[in-house]
Every structure is written in C-alpha cells, then in structure tokens.
C-alpha cells in the first residue's frame, strides 16, 4: 500500500528543543498488567508540559479561550480558569485517548512498540501517537475518520452519546470526536506500510492543540 494522509497531518514537524517520547509494549499481557499506567503516563505528560505555561489568573484572562470545556454554552470563560491547570487537563485527556486507542488496536504480532510524542512550540502543542495494526483494522478506522471529516463534529458527538445510551459497547471514535468538540483539537492521520512487519500498517495520529 502507499501512504494515505487524512486531515491535518505533517510529514515533517518544525524543529523544537522541547519534546518527549514514551513507548509501550503492544503485547496483550502488558495491556492487562499496565492498563492503569497509561493514564499515569498521560498525566505525567500533562504535569510536565503544563509547567511551561503561567498559572496566574491574569494569564488566563489574556488567553484566547481556544481550549474549552463542554457545558451549557460549550465553553468556559478564560477568566474563570487557571491556564496552567487547563493546559494540564487538556494534554492529559488527549494523551490518554491517543495512548489507549493506539494500545487497544495494536497488532501485537508486529512486536513494534506503541509510542506517543509531545512537541512544544510557542503557541501550540502537537501530540503524535504511532502504532502498528492489521490491514482490516486500518481500513475500518479510515472509514470512521472519513465520517468525522465529512460531518459536523457536534452532531457526531451527540449521535455517539445517543448510540452509547442504547449500546454501551458502541464507542467508535468517541474519544477523537470529544477531543475536537470539547477541546478544539485539530487531528490528522497517516496510514503507511509497516517498516518491519509486511502484514501490518503503521498508523500515526497527530493532535494539534492551540494554546
């Protein structure tokens, strides 16, 4: 297969000296033992990178309010939030969703680690997850992505919640939709042949957080 790129995905990221990459085993045994650790890893990323942002209320007043929290109006006034805590919560949530999705849908036969990287820039953060999956799963995932790209995110969010109320096991891409609807995250995806396992597909998910 050839590379397939969807949404806002950059093959080459701008240079930055502030970045961090974590790796996880894709094996089923590791998933059972370390599932709680994935959330802790996401919280670590949030705690670490939030320190680069001021936590004063004055800074919150000056922020653009791009990162939002769903409520009656779909957003929270920046003056009511501590910017550092907001950044921390956003990074932790997005990182946790990316890690769990990448782990859950990995092909453990590929033996390739699941990775998540976070790149810090002056006014935005980019998170990038990578995992290897089966061709069948990758095609199924691409269908869901096309649905997200072709429809209103708020509509999809409401639709997914209604579907889950009927069938709690139907959580298809709810985390990705929630990132976009609740936090204003812009997403991009790339599907490429696995570098080491010919029967697997390398899936990269890029999340853009404007701060």
Tell me what the structure shows.
The protein is α+β, with helices and mostly antiparallel strands and 211 residues long. The protein contains six helices and six strands. It has helices at 28-50, 57-62, 83-104, 135-150, 153-166, 174-183, and strands at residues 4-7, 19-24, 114-120, 124-134, 186-193, 200-210. The protein has a six-stranded antiparallel sheet with strand order 1-5-6-4-3-2, covered by helices on one side. Helix 1 (28-50) runs antiparallel to helix 3, helix 3 packs antiparallel against helix 6 and helix 5 packs across helix 6 (174-183). The longest helix is centred in the N-terminal third of the chain and has 23 residues, at 28-50.
Describe what is shown at a glance:
This protein is of the alpha+beta class and 211 residues long. Helix content is 43%, strand content 22%.
Low-confidence stretches: 56-81
Instruction: Give the rounded overall mean pLDDT.
Output: 84
Shape: globular
Number of helices: 6
Computed Rg:
17 Å
Main sheet summary: 6 strands, antiparallel
What helical percentage do the residues reach? 40-55%
The amount of beta strand, in percent, is 15-25%
């Amino acid at each position: 297969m050839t590379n397939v790129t969807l949404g806002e995905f950059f093959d080459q990221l701008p240079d930055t000296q502030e970045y961090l990459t974590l790796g996880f085993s894709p094996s089923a045994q590791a998933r059972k033992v370390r599932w709680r650790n994935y959330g802790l890893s996401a919280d670590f990323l949030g705690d670490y990178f939030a320190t680069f942002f001021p936590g004063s209320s004055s800074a919150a007043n000056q922020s653009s309010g791009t990162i939002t929290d769903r409520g009656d109006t779909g957003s929270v006034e920046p003056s009511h939030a501590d910017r550092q805590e907001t950044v921390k919560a956003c990074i932790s949530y997005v990182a946790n969703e990316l890690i769990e999705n990448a782990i859950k849908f990995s092909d453990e036969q590929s033996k390739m680690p699941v990775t998540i990287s976070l790149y810090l820039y002056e006014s935005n953060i980019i998170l990038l997850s990578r995992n290897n999956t089966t061709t069948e799963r990758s095609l199924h995932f691409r269908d869901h992505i096309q649905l997200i790209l072709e429809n209103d995110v708020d509509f999809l969010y409401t639709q997914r919640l209604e579907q889950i109320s009927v069938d709690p096991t139907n959580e298809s891409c709810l985390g990705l939709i929630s990132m976009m609807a609740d936090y204003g995250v812009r997403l991009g995806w790339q599907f490429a042949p696995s570098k080491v396992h010919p029967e697997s597909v390398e899936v990269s998910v890029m999340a853009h957080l404007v701060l």
